[in-house]
Structure formats: C-alpha cells, structure tokens
C-alpha cells in the first residue's frame, strides 16, 4: 500500500512539473485564456507544495515508527541494536534454543515439529536437522552431559541421545503428572548446576496465584519431577517494569554463565528479567515489540554474550536470532 502511494505521489509530482515547465506563450491565443493559464500554474504550484509536504510527513512517520527504542537501562547489553540473523522457513516457529560451545553453533526446536535443528554460526548459518518424534507442542531445548532435553508445553521431557556417528537419535520420555484436573503449561527449561537439576518455569499452572509463578525441578538421573523449587513474585517484576500489576508468563529462561544470574524472557509481557537463581527479580527491561516480534528462546555463550530467538510475526516474514555482545560493567 505504501509502495503504491509512493509511486502515485511521484507520478503526480512528475505530471505537475511537466505542466509547470510549459513556457511557450505562443500556445496562448488570447488574453482570457492567458489569464486562465497563469491561474492554473499558480494552482499547480500549490498542489505541488501540498503533495511534497504530505509525502515528507508520511515518510518521517514511517521511519520513526520503525526506530522506537526499548528500555535503555540495561548496562550489560544494548537491547536496541543486536546482530540479526534471518532463519529459514523450517524455523518460522522457533520456540527454544541452546548455544553449543563445542563448535559455536545453536541447537533449536520449532513449535509443532518433531525435529532438532542445528544452526552453524561459523559456517554461513548452514542448518541441519534430525527427526526425533511426531509433531507435538515443543517449547524449549537444553543440554547436559552429552544429552539433549526437549520440553513439551504439558511438562513432558524428551531425552535425546545421538549415536556415536551422530546420524541417529534415541529418545526417552519422562511424563509430567502433577495430579489434579487443572491446566499446567510450560515454555522454559534450563539446567541449574548448583541444584544438579533442570528447572521448568510455569507459564500458566493450576496452583499458581495471580501474582506468583512457580518453578519445578527435574532430576535427569532419576527422572523425577519436584514441585515448588522456587517462586517468582510477579508484583516485584511489575514494579520494576513501571506497571501496577501483571500476570507474568515466561517464555524462556537461562543462567548466564558469566555472572550466575538467571535471565527470564517473556513474549506475552514483552519483558526481559534479570534475577538471582531463586527467581528474585533484580531488574526488568521492557522490550520493543516492533523489534522483538515474539521472543521465545534465550541462551548464552560461556563469555556471557546473549542470544535471543524470535518467531516469525505479523510484521516480519522470517524468524530471527539476535546476538548481543556482553559489555563490561564496572
């Protein structure tokens, strides 16, 4: 629509300039017609000025809309200017990522697809994939002790093991059954070495109150789920974010190995939260929804560089990965 408007305006400008360029008075046969002719030229001048002014206003508004910046108080990362990598169509609904330090790549999963993807950051972003299950609502991926762990939204965890040659995958499923008839939905899974356990943060769980978000533990050795490892206070997050109240809905979380802090991402709330490992909020950074279309995954390099994945949204045709270099904080 904007392209058509742009084209039509310049067509009108071209026509106006053509008409205004007529200077051969021999075509004017009488005084009356000459007066009409000069009046027409004056009106065309006015038309041209209005046309150019309206075009300038539309252009400026369009540009400023695209450059509305998010919260700038984050000292460790420039949240407004990431390095942006565009992903292929198979990852349009990328829902979880994990940085793989052995070869500087990113493993990822896509919602409703039973594939594990590998994105090679040092090899022109070549992407590999391995099928491990039928399409289900997969939300996050993590890695520990040579095994991959895939989280379903219902809390089930799929453990993936590659064969020695790396060409096949064997899978084991731990079924999450907390009891009760209420809804339990998760999107976040990460490994906590201090607890020797994976942590699953509720997005919407049956026992959570409006201002509380609980975290479950998962023991990878014994395949046991543990309730209420810690609780996140959403009222504190709301206050840090400058809001009166909120229903906090995490979409991804990871511990930053450079600082030991827990970073929690929320697509619904358009927030990035920095907390301690017990979920106590330190800071909350609002995110620009124009840039962060649907942030669903977060991971870190050993040096603390941050990686965030975005699903393809209504404003953008492709999913993306954002990379943020960690700044030195005095």
Summed up:
The protein is an alpha+beta fold. 19% of the residues lie in helices and 38% in strands. The radius of gyration is 28 Å and the shape is globular.
Report on this structure.
By secondary structure, the protein is an alpha+beta fold. Helices cover 19% and strands 38% of the residues. The chain has 3 helices and 20 strands. The strands form 5 sheets. It has a 4-stranded antiparallel β-sheet with strand order 1-20-19-18, with no helix packed on it. Strands 2-3-4-5 form a 4-stranded antiparallel β-sheet, with no helix packed on it. Strands 6-7-8-9 form a 4-stranded antiparallel β-sheet, with no helix packed on it. A hairpin with a 6-residue loop joins strand 14 and strand 15. The longest helix has 36 residues. The protein is globular and about 50 Å long. The protein starts with a helix and ends in a 6-residue tail after the last strand. The N terminus is likely disordered.
């Amino acid at each position: 629509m904007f392209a058509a408007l742009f084209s039509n305006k310049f067509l009108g400008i071209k026509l106006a300039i053509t008409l205004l360029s007529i200077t051969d008075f021999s075509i004017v046969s009488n005084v009356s017609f000459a007066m009409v002719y000069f009046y027409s030229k004056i009106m065309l001048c006015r038309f041209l000025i209005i046309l150019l002014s309206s075009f300038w206003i539309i252009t400026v508004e369009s540009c400023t809309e695209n450059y509305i910046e998010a919260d700038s108080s984050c000292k460790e990362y420039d949240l407004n200017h990431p390095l942006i990598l565009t992903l292929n169509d198979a990852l349009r609904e990328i829902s979880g990522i994990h940085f793989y330090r052995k070869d500087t790549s990113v493993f990822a999963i896509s919602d409703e697809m039973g594939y594990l993807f590998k994105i090679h950051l040092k090899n022109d972003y070549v992407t590999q994939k391995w099928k491990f299950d039928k399409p289900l609502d997969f939300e996050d991926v993590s890695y520990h002790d040579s095994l991959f762990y895939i989280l379903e939204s219902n809390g089930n965890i799929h453990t993936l093991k590659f064969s020695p040659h790396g060409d096949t995958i064997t899978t084991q499923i731990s079924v999450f059954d907390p009891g009760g008839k209420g809804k339990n939905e998760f999107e976040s899974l990460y490994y906590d070495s201090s607890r020797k356990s994976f942590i699953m943060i509720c997005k919407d769980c049956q026992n959570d109150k409006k201002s509380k978000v609980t975290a479950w533990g998962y023991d990878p050795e014994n395949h046991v789920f543990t309730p209420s490892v810690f609780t996140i206070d959403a009222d504190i997050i709301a206050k840090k974010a400058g809001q009166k109240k909120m229903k906090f809905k995490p979409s991804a979380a990871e511990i930053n190995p450079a600082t030991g802090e827990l970073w929690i991402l929320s697509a619904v709330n358009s927030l990035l939260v920095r907390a301690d490992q017990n979920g106590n909020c330190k800071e909350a950074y609002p995110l620009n929804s124009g840039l962060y279309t649907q942030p669903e995954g977060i991971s870190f390099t050993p040096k603390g560089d941050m990686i965030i994945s975005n699903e393809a949204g209504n404003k953008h045709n492709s999913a993306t990965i954002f990379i943020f270099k960690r700044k030195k904080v005095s």
